[in-house]
Write a structure and sequence with these properties.
Layout lengths: L2 H20 L5 E5 L3 E7 L8 E4 L14 E2 L5 E7 L10 E6 L4 H17 L6 H10 L1 H4 L5 E3 L1 H8 L1 H10 L6 E3 L6 H18 L2 E3 L6 E3 L3 E3 L6 E3 H13 L19 H7 L4 H14 L4 E3 L8 E3 L6 E3 L6 E3 L16 H13 L2 H11 L1 H20 E3 L6 E3 L6 E3 L6 E3 L33
Parallel strand pairs: 3-7, 6-8
Antiparallel strand pairs: 1-2, 2-5, 3-4, 5-6, 9-10, 11-12, 13-14, 15-16, 17-18, 19-20
């Protein structure tokens, strides 16, 4: 072996040792046999931490891609062989492969690496190559704030068109295009999410609730607003919300933020309560749907769709027939049984409502039933104000005029209008002459309610 080859070998080993100290194991590795083989993953630096997609083919389910830009790109991979006469005479043999660049863009990269070697012939070149690829690659390809992925979509949609195009273009044989198997946009988004998660978990963060420092694996960054919490604090916060049935709008815990915590984040943070959360959310959603009602049976609660204005609903699960207005057993044309409070509320809504409101109430309760309810309610109000029950048979007796000695028209018992007690003396008027009762000498006194 000549001295020149030995010197080249020593220079190669020294260069490799230096690169191992500069780049981490994810970026640079090597294998040494008769010749040295090197593997380098280029992670391009995205300008301003923002890169949007350009010339995107939007599929039917495009809305599933919520991100409009990415921060991290998949690596450009470089495979090198160091010949025995490198760096004395020859440059390293290499191949460049990428999944998000077109073959002609990769060919431009190969040509640029050749130019760098030409300008620095006879010197160790790997560091210059790697620094160009890591720091200047996007500027060299004129990729500033947008990434054109039309070529990726062409290959994804028809690999045959790609091979036909490849035959017509004279690309550098060292340029290798590795097409992704999934949707190109989703492929890039998934990689970006993964890298963001790796970066996040490798750092320490301050929880917005407890204000303590926690490692990234113990924290979560909310997708909607990017606020950071330790998992324990935000879990306790979500548990309280679910247990208090506030599931329809679980927002970020930051006082100045009103963005929601997503469905998947709740599932990830509180898997034990997720079934309860999902059930409550479904129930609240059903309650907001005007044409959907729930079976009133406690053992069922199966949702069903109302059949227009038909007051009869039959549960498809338990076959229970019920009225869609009062949710009791179906009573046909008989009006719904209502409490005094419900009746008063209905009357107030009907009297104070506009034409549309009255029409809606008549449609829901029926005009005839509203009339009956109004009459019954007014009758009860009148009796409450102008009549009193007989102490013997409870028949309501109304006083029109005369003295305070009352006679029940039903059971003929005497009673006092003032105190309401039954008069049992032989002479009924003696009740108003007794000093022991508060009605003394009040036979003709008018009682004002």
């Amino acid at each position: 072996m000549s001295q020149t080859i030995i010197n080249n070998r020593d220079q190669q080993i020294n260069e490799i040792m230096i690169l191992l100290n500069i780049y981490n194991y994810n970026e640079f590795s090597y294998h040494k046999t008769d010749i040295i083989e090197c593997y380098y993953n280029v992670f391009p630096a995205v300008n301003d931490n923002l890169l949007r997609f350009e010339n995107v083919y939007k599929p039917v389910n495009y809305n599933t891609f919520s991100e409009d830009c990415i921060k991290y790109l998949p690596p450009v991979r470089v495979y090198l062989q160091l010949p025995t006469d490198y760096p004395d005479k020859k440059s390293p043999n290499f191949y460049v492969s990428a999944s998000w660049l077109s073959p002609w863009q990769i060919s431009f990269i190969c040509q640029k690496l050749d130019e760098i070697w030409t300008d620095n012939k006879g010197q160790e070149i790997l560091f210059l190559w790697f620094e160009f690829l890591r720091n200047d690659l996007l500027n060299f390809l004129q990729i500033k704030d947008a990434l054109d992925i039309s070529f990726m979509y062409m290959v994804h949609d028809s690999i045959t068109d790609y091979f036909k195009l490849n035959l017509t273009l004279q690309n550098d044989i060292r340029a290798i295009y590795n097409p992704p198997f999934s949707n190109p946009m989703q492929f890039l988004i998934n990689y970006d999410r993964y890298q963001q998660k790796v970066k996040f978990e490798s750092n320490y963060h301050v929880c917005t609730i407890c204000f303590d420092y926690h490692c990234g694996k113990q924290c979560i960054k909310l997708r909607q607003c990017n606020h950071i919490y330790c998992k324990q604090c935000i879990q306790e916060y979500i548990v309280i919300k679910i247990n208090e049935n506030y599931v329809n709008n679980i927002v970020c815990a930051d006082l100045n933020c009103n963005l929601n915590i997503t469905f998947n984040e709740v599932k990830e943070l509180c898997p034990e309560l997720f079934l309860k959360y999902e059930t409550l959310l479904l129930q609240m959603t059903i309650n907001t749907m005007q044409n959907v009602i729930l079976c009133p049976r406690k053992s069922c609660h199966c949702p069903l769709i109302k059949n227009g204005d038909d007051p009869l609903a039959v549960c498809g699960e338990c076959d229970y027939p019920f009225c869609i207005y009062c949710y009791k057993l179906y009573h046909g044309v008989t009006p719904c049984i209502m409490t005094n409070i419900d009746s008063a509320k209905l009357i107030e809504e009907y009297q104070n409502g506009d034409k549309d409101k009255k029409r809606l109430l008549e449609k829901e309760y029926g005009r005839k039933q509203i009339q009956i309810i109004v009459e019954e309610h007014l009758s009860k109000q009148h009796l409450k104000k102008h009549a009193k029950p007989c102490p013997n048979c409870c028949t309501m007796v109304s006083k029109i005029s005369g003295c305070n000695k009352m006679t029940c028209a039903y059971c003929k018992v005497y009673f006092c209008w003032i105190c309401g007690i039954q008069i049992t003396t032989k002479n009924a008027y003696d009740h108003f002459l007794s000093l022991d009762v508060p009605c003394y000498k009040r036979l003709f006194e008018e009682i004002r309610e």
